[in-house]
Amino acid sequence: MTDDVMISLENVSKTYRGQKAPAVENVSMTIHRGEIVVLVGPSGCGKTTTMKMINRLIEPSGGRILVDGEDVTALDGTQLRRRIGYVIQQGGLFPHMSVATNIGLVPKMLGWKRGRIEERVDELLHLVGLEPGQYRDRLPRQLSGGQQQRVGVARALAADPPVMLMDEPFGATDPLTRDRLQNEFLRLQEKLQKTIVFVTHDFDEAIKMGTRIAVLGERSRIRQFDTPEQLLAAPADETVGQFIGAGAALKRLNLRRIDSVECGDAELMGVEESPTAVLRRLDSCDADAVLTVDGQRRPLRWVGVRDLGPDQADLRGIGLPVTVVESRATLHDALDQMLTSNCGSVVVVDDDGRYCGVVNIECLMRAISEMREAARERDRGVIEASPGTPAQAVRGRR
Ligand SMILES: Nc1ncnc2c1ncn2[C@@H]1O[C@H](COP(=O)(O)OP(=O)(O)OP(=O)(O)O)[C@@H](O)[C@H]1O
């Protein structure tokens, strides 16, 4: 096994007791350090069974599984599970235990001192965006679904395991929360660089989260194991193509993050400026609205000529609300926001909500045609995929 490999499945099979046919048959797969490998496939194809054999929540009937070079079947199951974080739907929290107790479970089992556990719990709550003072002592039922999920992730990270298994972790949340959790998790993963096996039903989620995606068929047979780009551009067979579904071109928007395209610029004006200053600015540029921002450059509203009546004293509260999207979100998220908000553009913000730029429909169209061209070139074998090619700047318009 090379240094780069973190998990290796070698001819792994599972036949459940009382069943004739195996649920998983002869699966071999290599997962590298720091990658997110997503297992997708139809219901009942064996995704969860395959994943749970890695931490031996399910004992394999045959084959070998190596984690960081060690054969997991030779290790004590409980010890093994302390070294592999595990996240399931709705966090899988113990309902009668506080958030802090839930997160501190594995460190406690590992014999950490109380002070160290408390410090770690607070550190993890910060990491997943929950204020420790506010959430530490709550019970899981006093949290929203998304918050429970964040605590589930914090718990899995408690003992800083190199490997995480995630079984439909965001499955039980509404689409907006799921999007946010996905983005937050990707941001965390940039820092943490864990090796992650991720099971989902949702192909769009697979594209967004996966470094590589394994499309599984019956008995976990691997139909294709490839990067999202390659899967979308060149499905291995008709079944994979059907699974990817219609709109592969649109789905490619999931592959490109907003921070990889050159955004346009809006005409920014501090909200404390005067309506006359706005009129002067609009007169001198080709934008039809300015974007008002607060003292921290956080976007507030789009203000155009028609919002400025003769008696308008200041800019506060006038104009159209902005639709914002994080710079780490995908172009697909940006398009989604545009369509749901009925707005021709979205304002891109950084982690602190500060203005970064504007993405509009022309910018998306340009990115789509670039990706299409790159896929064509790749098919011709001319160049490697280059999904990071920046789009040209666009003018910000509401
Ligand atoms: N404890 C069990 N005993 C017997 N058969 C089982 C058991 N658990 C799962 N199976 C069977 O093994 C097969 C694979 O199940 P598994 O849960 O791994 O599939 P999956 O791809 O994760 O499904 P889903 O997407 O619906 O969650 C299914 O046919 C299922 O009925």
Notable features of this structure?
398 residues; alpha/beta; Rossmann fold; CBS-domain; 2 domains; 6-stranded mixed β-sheet; 4-stranded antiparallel β-sheet; 15 helices; 22% strand; globular; disordered C terminus; binds adenosine-5'-triphosphate
**Unreliably modeled segments:** 382-398
As a whole number of angstroms, the C-alpha radius of gyration is: 24 Å
How far apart the termini lie comes to 54 Å
Structural class: alpha/beta
Q: Tell me the strand percentage band.
A: 15-25%
Largest sheet entry:
6 strands, mixed
Specify the CATH class of the largest domain.
Alpha Beta
What is the overall number of helices?
15
What is the residue-mean pLDDT, rounded to a whole number? Answer: 87
In CATH, the topology of the largest domain is named Rossmann fold
Please tally the β strands and state the result.
17
Architecture (CATH level 2) name of the largest domain? 3-Layer(aba) Sandwich
Q: Can you list the strand order of the major beta sheet?
A: 6-7-8-3-9-10
Shape: globular
How many structural domains does the protein architecture include? 2
The percentage helix is 25-40%
